[in-house]
Design brief:
Shape: elongated
Strand content: under 5%
Number of strands: 0
Order of helices and strands: HHHHHH
Helix content: over 70%
Structural class: mainly alpha
Largest sheet: none
């Protein structure tokens, strides 16, 4: 597995950044499935089955993102990486506005600081997307014509 990373066309910073994002999403999944007290402390109400439905649906979507991210970390395919980064940009881009507008009760940062952190994260995600998209385009250009049909 480590050899695959060494020989990968994907830059190490892109892979490391994706691993960090996977770890952060994993923490969120843990909160949504198992640590409802953390969510209550954050000011999120969990008053019945409809609220749990939203929590578990959100957790399930994060699990899908984690699965897709782990898949591309294993395959090291630039085109597949681009799809995951695109989805990540859309997810984090929404959070960039939602988190400062509707902050958690136990948010560790002021809304403007939270917004600034999200801007940096989204900018890095865009840079990763552009990087892997260029690699995917180069791979398509370099592929023999028979491989494209």
């Amino acid at each position: 597995m480590l050899e695959r990373f060494k020989n990968s066309p994907i830059p190490i910073w892109v892979n490391v950044f994706l691993v960090v994002i996977v770890l952060l999403m994993t923490v969120q999944v843990f909160w949504y499935y198992f640590n409802h007290q953390y969510l209550l402390d954050a000011g999120i109400t969990i008053e019945g089955d409809p609220d749990k439905n939203v929590l578990y649906t959100t957790a399930g979507r994060l699990v899908a993102m984690i699965g897709a991210s782990i898949f591309v970390l294993i395959t090291q395919n630039p085109a597949q990486h681009a799809v995951v980064w695109f989805m990540s940009i859309l997810r984090e881009g929404q959070e960039m506005f939602i988190d400062p507008l509707f902050p958690y009760a136990n948010s560790p940062a002021a809304p403007i600081v939270d917004f600034g952190m999200h801007v940096v994260i989204v900018a890095l995600q865009i840079a990763a997307f552009v990087t892997v998209s260029r690699l995917a385009k180069q791979e398509r250009r370099d592929a023999p014509a028979s491989a494209l049909t």
